[in-house]
Design goal:
Elements: E1 2-6, H1 11-24, E2 32-36, H2 39-44, E3 52-55, E4 58-62, H3 68-79
Parallel strand pairs: 1-2
Antiparallel strand pairs: 1-3, 3-4
Helix pairs in contact: 1-3
Length: 80
């Protein structure tokens, strides 16, 4: 599973990253988290609001800090 976060370094991006890391802690070896700060990624993925969460190339959320429960739901749906 490939997880990407699009957005500049901000408190919202850090909160989202922290929530993702908490969810992925038990399965750290199988997931790759990538931070995409360059504005070109906003254009590539058609992101309007940051931070944006992308899982395996699919935009999951934009401009929102997902809770741990929401992140788990999207990761479990993506694994099936």
């Amino acid at each position: 599973m490939r997880i990407q976060i699009v957005g500049k370094n901000s408190s919202n991006r850090m909160k989202l990253l922290k929530n993702i890391e908490k969810v992925l802690e038990p399965q750290k070896n199988t997931c790759n988290i990538q931070i995409l700060e360059d504005d070109k990624y906003k254009q590539i993925y058609h992101v309007v609001n940051t931070p944006a969460l992308i899982i395996d190339g699919k935009i999951i959320s934009q401009g929102k800090i997902l809770t741990e429960r929401e992140i788990k739901r999207f990761i479990l749906a993506n694994n099936n």
